[in-house]
Amino acid sequence: MNREKTALILEGGGLRGVYTSGVLQYLMEKNIYFPYVIGVSMGACNGANYISRQTERNKIVNISFVNDSRYLSYIRLFLKGELFGMDFIFDTIPNKLVSFDYKTFKQNQQKFIIVATDCISGEPIYFDKAEIGDDFMKLLKASSSLPFIAKPVKYNGKILMDGGLSDSVPIHKSLKDGNKKNVLILTQPKGYRKKQSNSSIYAKLRYPKFKGLIKALQTRSQRYNETLDYIDELEKEGKVFIIRPEYSLNLGRAERNKPNLYAAFDKGYKDIERCFKDLSDYLIVT
After folding, report:
1. Mean pLDDT along residues 39-62
2. 8 Å CB contact between 191 and 228
3. Which of 12, 17, 132, 272 has the highest Cβ tally under 10 A?
């Protein structure tokens, strides 16, 4: 593997991200660590545990708490405008319940980038682990905060929300950063394209001051689909390696069925196990 020009790109997708958790667990068991990792939303959360070298943590955190009201509650959504308990997820869990290895995360030399969306400009902002210090949990929270079911996160004068609104699969960022080999873990099957949503209409009422957020919602499906078209062309040319389910996982962003979540995790694990030799061949420096 070219240690300076090889990237791992992690798509979000809410709890569909347990598929990615399965893939990453296999890679960690094989001691495969990419020098450059960039993640969006749940992909960034998965990536953080990959950087901290905690093999089982993604599986534990992403599945064990789904039926805990502190983690996910429609009553809280109605009362407080927050479906997921973001403070519980990004404070209580890592600091009290399932310890996050901050030391390993900080000392690890892997480059790790978290993608969030600027609510004012509507553009993606890329936060490098080396530059954000102790604020990375807050930025993971921002990257995972979807409109209507989570609250915006303020950081350094910016108002941030989910990175997937502006750059769901940051292949262009990776290429711009000079990576020649790119491995993508996607949570939707080949051929999937996002349908146009009416969410921007409701966003104008809910977030009248966030012009960029409204714009991002208006153009999200178009930009996402154009990115997937581009990725498909790169795949045909052998310039990227993609790991993704061959059929829909049939999981919602707020999935609470544990057997279905474990099945998606196992599918990710088995999919990378099956294509591991092809991945190894792709990563060989030529």
Report:
1. 96
2. no
3. 17
Q: Minimal CA–CA distance to 35: which of 129, 121, 140? A: 129
C-alpha 284: how far from chain center: 26
What values do phi and psi take at 161, rounded to 5?
Answer: -140, -170
CA dihedral over 254, 81, 212, 155, signed as positive or negative? negative
Determine the Cα–Cα distance for residues 52 and 28; give it in Å rounded to an integer: 11
CB 44 within 8 A of CB 144: yes
Cα 215 to chain centroid distance, Å, stands at 21
Burial class (CB in 10 A: 0-12, 13-18, 19+), 39: buried
Question: Which residues on adjacent β-strands are paired with residue 114?
Answer: 39, 127
E strands in 63-136: 111-118, 124-128
- Cα distance between residue 36 and residue 26, in whole Å: 18
Residue 286, pLDDT score = 62
74 closest CA partner among 263, 251, 242, 252: 252
